[in-house]
Amino acid sequence: MKHHTDYLTFNTRSRQEIIDITDAVERCRASAAIREGMVLVSAMHISASVFVNDHEPNLWGDILRWLEDRIAPWDPDHYRHNSGTGEDNAAAHLRSITIGHEVIVPVTNGELDLGPWQRIFYGEWDGQRPKRVVLKAMGE
Fold first, then answer.
1. How far is it, in rounded angstroms, from Cα 51 to Cα 35?
2. 17-20 and 48-54: which strand pairing?
3. pTM to 2 decimal places
4. Contact criterion met (CB below 8 Å) for 5 and 134
5. Does pLDDT of 85 surpass 90?
6. Mean pLDDT for the chain overall
7. Of 40, 41, 34, 53, which is closest to residue 108 (Cα–Cα)?
8. Of 40, 59, 109, 111, which has the fewest CB atoms closer than 10 Å, so is most exposed?
9. How deeply is 1 buried, as exposed, middle or buried, from its count of CB atoms within 10 A (0-12, 13-18, 19+)?
10. Strand order in the sheet with 102-108
């Protein structure tokens, strides 16, 4: 079995961002030279996510608004985690649980096997400091 591991580091300008990482995932696949297999893409932080969806900025705005309005509003006084730790990022932890922290992308005939509009994204929910994503390509 062939394999290759890469790490991506993000230090976002804002607390929340959505970043398309599909090209980096493809570079990892190519470095492993696999034609059949998979690439694991996993956020290495509990306040970030990895997900597959459409590359459409208006959708990103909808996702951010949905997280803020319906899932985990950024209201530090509302969460016990914040009062117990002195941090203010409980909402980021809940957002990560909701969106998920990793995806497995199939590789078929030497290509990432994504649907016609699918791309791979890193979702940062508590940024402005370095955070990592691990990419692990495996296969033949």
1. 22
2. unpaired
3. 0.95
4. yes
5. no
6. 96
7. 34
8. 109
9. exposed
10. 2-10, 131-139, 37-43, 102-108, 111-112
Could you tell me if 25 and 88 are in contact, meaning their C-beta atoms sit under 8 angstroms apart?
A: no
Question: Can you tell me which residue has the tokens 């692990």?
Answer: 136
Token reading at 73? 């509003």
Residue 88, number of CB atoms within 10 A of its CB: 16
Question: Which pLDDT value is given to residue 83?
Answer: 86
Place 126 in a pLDDT band, splitting at 50, 70 and 90.
very high
Look at phi and psi of residue 55 and say left if phi exceeds 0, alpha if psi is from -120 to 50, else beta.
Answer: beta
| Cα-based angle 73, 75, 79 (whole degrees, multiple of 5) | 100
Given this model, what pLDDT does residue 66 score?
Answer: 97
Helix (H) or strand (E) holding 96: helix 90-99
What's the average model confidence in pLDDT over 71-93?
Answer: 92
